[in-house]
Design brief:
10 helices; mainly alpha; single chain; Heme Oxygenase, Chain A; disordered N terminus; 204 residues
């Protein structure tokens, strides 16, 4: 029993678990907003969702290419989905949107980890979303590429990412910065989602 208790405590103390806990509220708020915009009711509504996804992933491209972060996560560059989202926009007949002011600029490594945690974690939820997209005849090769399963599988990729994340030697201040950054990442995607639907009054 003591061993089981210790194991449970260890799980709760993992960085990835703490990040999950601190982002629960903004994650729930974002999920509710996505549902409110009903992206799977039509291709037009889904296209606005892809606009938000593209804007978010495009803003994070510098992180996925950052040498210091790639040194921590060797497969980081290939994890980025900005190009897939751009192709989805083309499939859906949409122009690439202009950047929205307020993008992340020159984060510390700790802050970058919080943003990457949110971006990488969203691939797990994408497994459900791509099934919904199938009703619109969209797939991981047309229109919903950015929701496709990563090479090697979603669960395995997430486990590799969090295993590294959980064992990085960060100070208490850096951990706090990562947690604030993860919350900020959810807030930024929420802002971009609102922007994407607001740019089409018929779907706002």
């Amino acid at each position: 029993m003591a061993t089981a208790t210790a194991t449970a405590h260890e799980r709760a103390s993992l960085r990835s678990q703490r990040l999950n806990q601190v982002t629960h509220a903004p994650h729930s708020e974002l999920d509710a907003l996505v549902k409110a915009h009903a992206p799977f009711d039509s291709r037009e509504r889904f296209a606005r969702f892809v606009v938000a996804q593209y804007l978010f992933q495009a803003e994070l491209q510098p992180l996925y290419r950052d040498p210091a972060l790639v040194a921590l996560f060797p497969d980081l560059a290939e994890r980025c989905r900005a190009e897939q989202a751009r192709q989805d926009l083309a499939d859906l007949g949409c122009d690439v949107p202009a950047p929205v002011p307020g993008a992340l600029r020159d984060p510390s490594v700790a802050q970058a980890l919080g943003w990457l945690f949110v971006s990488e974690g969203s691939k797990l939820g994408a497994a459900f979303l791509i099934k919904r997209a199938a009703a619109l005849q969209l797939t991981d090769t047309f229109g919903a590429r950015h929701l496709g399963e990563p090479a090697g599988g979603r669960a395995a990729g997430w486990k590799r990412f969090t295993r590294t994340l959980d064992h990085l030697p960060l100070s208490a201040e850096e951990d706090a910065a990562a947690e604030r950054a993860a919350v900020a990442a959810f807030e930024r995607f929420t802002e971009l989602l609102k922007h994407a639907y607001a740019t089409d009054p018929a779907l706002a």
